[in-house]
């Protein structure tokens, strides 16, 4: 998820225990550096809903990237030639985790000790 989109949504985020190195499609390391935070969103598709983890980074023009976790969970039928995902709209809904963010941070710090 793009960090600017995350900040506009006014939802909580969680710190990763270990930062993740990400690479661009061309194999180069992303210029924004390692991913340090993630958030949770509800994703609705074809009558199903699930909570999904979104890593926060700069996507430079894109709001979200739905990758393997989305494809694995919903197993959609793809029209690769038309580059379309038939079957209705994908809806993303915020989940208010900001109230428990501090609690998760406390548990993570205890686990690291």
Summarize the structure.
This protein has 113 residues and is of the alpha+beta class.
Strand-helix topology:
Elements lengths: L2 H7 L4 E7 L14 E11 L2 E8 L12 H7 L16 E4 L6 H12 L1
Antiparallel strand pairs: 1-2, 2-3, 2-4
Give the total of domains.
1
DSSP helix count? 3
Helix/strand structural class: alpha+beta
| Mean model confidence by pLDDT | 84
How much strand content do the residues show?
25-35%
Question: Could you walk me through the main structural features you see in this protein, from its secondary elements to its overall organization?
Answer:
The chain is an alpha+beta fold and 113 residues long. It has one domain. The protein is 23% helix and 27% strand. It contains three helices and four strands; from the N terminus they run αβββαβα. Strands 1, 2, 3 and 4 form a four-stranded antiparallel sheet that branches. A hairpin with a 2-residue loop joins strand 2 and strand 3. The longest helix has 12 residues. It is globular.
Features:
single chain, 113 residues, alpha+beta, four-stranded antiparallel beta sheet, 3 helices, 23% helix, 27% strand
